[in-house]
């Protein structure tokens, strides 16, 4: 059984809940990523911010990204996967919550991120299409 820890991208960097969306966008550019975990002042995970969130929930409605804090876009309890959970469980979680990226948690610590692409790279080539179909949503 392959675990999330084995295929995740380790060392995920957070955006602070009180940092602006402009700062988040710059950090995404610098790190060449499309999503950042949102971490609170208490170092606990508050959610995940995507480049799409910034565009759709801020820019497209005419809001200034310098005035909106990352934590304002964190909604509900973050969807995560345990570091020692199976890749199959990660796929099920992505499918159930309709997300393409999951923070990987070990205890209460963020240890990495796992994406649809990470999972695809770990699968036999003939099963990648099945994965994309499972996690794709309208």
UniProtKB/TrEMBL annotation:
Keywords of this entry: CBS domain
SMART domains: CBS
Pfam (any one): CBS
Every CBS domain range: 8-68, 73-131
KW Ubl conjugation (keyword) present: no
Magnesium keyword on record: no
UniProt-recorded name of the protein: CBS domain-containing protein
The organism of origin for this protein: Kocuria sediminis
Lineage per the UniProt record: Bacteria, Bacillati, Actinomycetota, Actinomycetes, Micrococcales
């Amino acid at each position: 059984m392959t675990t999330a820890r084995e295929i995740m991208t380790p060392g995920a960097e957070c955006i602070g809940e009180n940092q602006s969306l402009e700062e988040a966008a710059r950090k995404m550019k610098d790190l060449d990523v499309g999503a950042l975990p949102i971490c609170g002042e208490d170092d606990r995970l508050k959610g995940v911010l995507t480049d799409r969130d910034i565009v759709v929930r801020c820019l497209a409605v005419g809001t200034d990204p310098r005035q909106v804090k990352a934590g304002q876009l964190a909604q509900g309890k973050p969807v995560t996967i345990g570091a020692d959970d199976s890749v199959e469980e990660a796929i099920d979680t992505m499918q159930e919550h309709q997300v393409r990226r999951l923070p990987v948690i070990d205890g209460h610590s963020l240890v990495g991120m796992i994406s649809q692409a990470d999972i695809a790279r770990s699968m036999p080539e003939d099963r990648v299409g099945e994965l994309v179909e499972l996690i794709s949503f309208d």
